Amino acid sequence: MLRRRRLTARRAAVIIAGYTMVITVLGGAVARLLDRHDFHSLGIAIWWALQTVTTVGYGDIVPTGTSGRIVGGFLMVSGIAFLAVVTASVTAALIEMARGRLRAQTSEPAPEMSEEIIARLASLEARFDKFEAALRSDRD
What we know:
The protein is 76% helix and 0% strand. The protein has helices at 9-34, 42-53, 66-105, 111-139. The chain has 4 helices and no strands. The chain has 2 domains: 9-107, Helix Hairpins (Orthogonal Bundle), CATH 1.10.287.70; 110-140. By secondary structure, it is mainly α. The longest helix is centred in the middle third of the chain and has 40 residues, at 66-105.
């Protein structure tokens, strides 16, 4: 029935945008219900909520009551969080694309590099064997 789909940057952005739209409309409706003096209609309240969430705040509608200001504060924090998460999602997607390109370019080391690494490892093993033999002879 309900199966979990992999979370991608695109799906995360859609979820976050949907959450923000719901919060905006609900914030406007709550502001209208709690502060009818400052919000004369649902349309005006939702317009104010949209301005607040996007941090535009034209100043044409300003709640003067405590309840309207509390709703406004919640909307401001939601708007800032929305912008931060979208920025982080875009950045993560760009970094992942760059990593993918880098992996495609450097999937196998060059043959001469492999030979050099093998030679160095052999040299280290020989030194370790000498060191180990010297320790044994000191104990005996």
